[in-house]
Amino acid sequence: MKTKICSKCLGDLPITDFRKRLNKKKDYSYFRSWCRFCERVAALEYYRLNREHIKRYAAEYRRLNKEKTYIRKRLYLKNNPWAKTSHSIWVRVKKQYKKLGIKNYLTTQALRFLWFRDKAFSMKKPSIHRIDSLGNYTLKNCKYMESREHTILHNHRRQMQPRTTAGVFAGAGVYEQR
Ligand SMILES: [Zn+2]
Ligand SMILES: [Zn+2]
């Protein structure tokens, strides 16, 4: 196997541990002198030290390139439809679930996992369901459901647990026990 010495950590590493850079105009490619790991560490360190500057720069870029940003965002959501779920969960957690203490522990990557596990891509309108309606948004407690079936399920639960006796209705099939 071909190896290369990283000029940062001085490790003799397989060539696949280095990022390849392609120069299209000059039509040649080369490997970076730092390995992937060293590059990552340096990038994180740079971000840590210049966070405010980077944030301000990014905001300024978005302000000046509104159309580009909009197109990129649309494209991102098209390719990563589970990211929409992530957004709607954050809205729910901040608003109607706040007083119930329901928290979100699902990352976008976790939602991606659920998306493929539950085959949400083949659903007409996928929606996220918490199995225990008083539980948090976690990998164990969540699954994607067809929106129609989801509504039916919650309507059924609502009928089984009338609001007059059990507790206060708190939206999306959640009953707060008093
Ligand atoms: Zn290195
Ligand atoms: Zn549900």
Report on the structure:
This protein is of the alpha+beta class and 178 residues long. The protein folds into 3 domains: 1-44; 50-79, no CATH class; 81-168, no CATH class. The chain is built from 6 helices and 8 strands. The strands form 4 sheets. The protein has a two-stranded antiparallel sheet with strand order 1-2. A hairpin with a 6-residue loop joins strand 1 and strand 2. Helix 4 (82-94) crosses helix 5 (108-117). The longest helix has 14 residues, at 36-49. The mean pLDDT is 89. The chain binds zinc ion (2 copies). Residues 129-130, 150, 154, 173 line the site of one zinc ion. One zinc ion binds next to helix 1.
Which features does this protein show?
178 residues, alpha+beta, two-stranded antiparallel ribbon, elongated, binds zinc ion
